[in-house]
């Protein structure tokens, strides 16, 4: 028989075992992509080419719920629980503390950039969005925060890192753990980026050259999140980091063009991984699955 899984088992039962067919990830990606395209086209048709931030953010809520439903459906077919993907109570607590430290570090870093650049510090909650050229209203800030932190970041990470990255790792079979993980990270990041292209080109009318640049940035972001997930096994952590990266909770105004600073962000991501692993006892040396058969 199989021993009952508890939070203490999560460190050794990795990656999670999937029981669905090998074609299921392709079906999932197609279904997810079609829904995203239908949702974006419908939004453009209803609100036109220049929608408000509030409308765009609120539209993300029902759209995100459908995406979440698709993920839950495929996980049910796979026989995988949310806890198996790194969504246990302990992971939530550690993620919240880690992300609080990350947000503090980001704000200190931005303040340092402003001072080094000869600017004047201005304390403004969500200063990046409250100041020109964006000048969000309070309702826009609230709507965007809820959309990104509760729906967009968590749902996309559950779909791509929690399911697709782990599923691809599982499908790669008896190869070395590092090889399987690396291939799955890059492949998932590429799929995540390509998913955005139809919306960028067909709905938003972004020029092809600019779309290619966005594709590269999205792929690199996906690789960063996939690597953090592979090294921490905490899906809450990458979900929160994703939401924050989409909507930076800065309390200082960085000024035009000062943020995001991608080099500094990568350094902070690296510190997050190192400190998290130290806090967690450095137990995640390898993503090999250890059985619990008794």
From TrEMBL:
Keywords on record: Membrane, Transmembrane, Transmembrane helix
Spans through the membrane: 23-46, 58-75, 95-116, 136-160, 181-202, 208-228, 235-252, 258-276
Record GO terms (molecular function): endopeptidase activity
One record GO biological process: CAAX-box protein maturation
Pfam family of the protein (one): Rce1-like
Domain CAAX prenyl protease 2/Lysostaphin resistance protein A-like: residue ranges: 141-247
InterPro entries found in the cross-reference section: Rce1/LyrA-like_dom (IPR003675)
Highest taxon in the source lineage: Archaea
Protein name (Swiss-Prot/TrEMBL): Type II CAAX prenyl endopeptidase Rce1 family protein
